[in-house]
Design a protein that fits this description.
Blueprint lengths: L1 E2 L8 E17 L2 H13 L4 H24 L4 E13 L2 E15 L1
Parallel strand pairs: 1-3
Antiparallel strand pairs: 2-4, 3-4
């Protein structure tokens, strides 16, 4: 599966647009890691606990989107975009979406 954030794939021709595909997940951190992150926030520095949470959430959301594209028979997903939102304190939603397409070599 080819995944790009552009509306084209170099050397390939888009022969069919199959539709929008998306993946979404909501994640929160374990209470212990949340306390560590809160303390780190007081003194400054990178909040590694939340960075890990967001990275894991991106991977999960991408996997969901790819499975949806595969179910449509797509060869690629173009115009991929990410969005995040807070759904409650210390929990975030990651949404990834794009256009599933069929391609051929030029």
């Amino acid at each position: 599966m080819i995944l790009v954030n552009t509306d084209f794939i170099p050397g390939k021709e888009i022969v069919e647009t199959l539709g929008i595909v998306r993946g979404s997940t909501i994640r929160a951190k374990h209470v212990g890691k949340d306390i560590v992150a809160s303390l780190r926030q007081l003194v400054g520095g990178e909040l590694k606990e939340y960075q890990e949470m967001i990275e894991d959430a991106r991977k999960i959301a991408m996997g969901i989107m790819v499975r949806q594209a595969e179910a449509l028979g797509a060869d690629a997903v173009i115009n991929i975009r990410f969005a995040t939102s807070a759904v409650m304190q210390r929990a975030a939603e990651i949404l990834v979406y794009g256009t599933a397409v069929k391609i051929s070599s030029k």
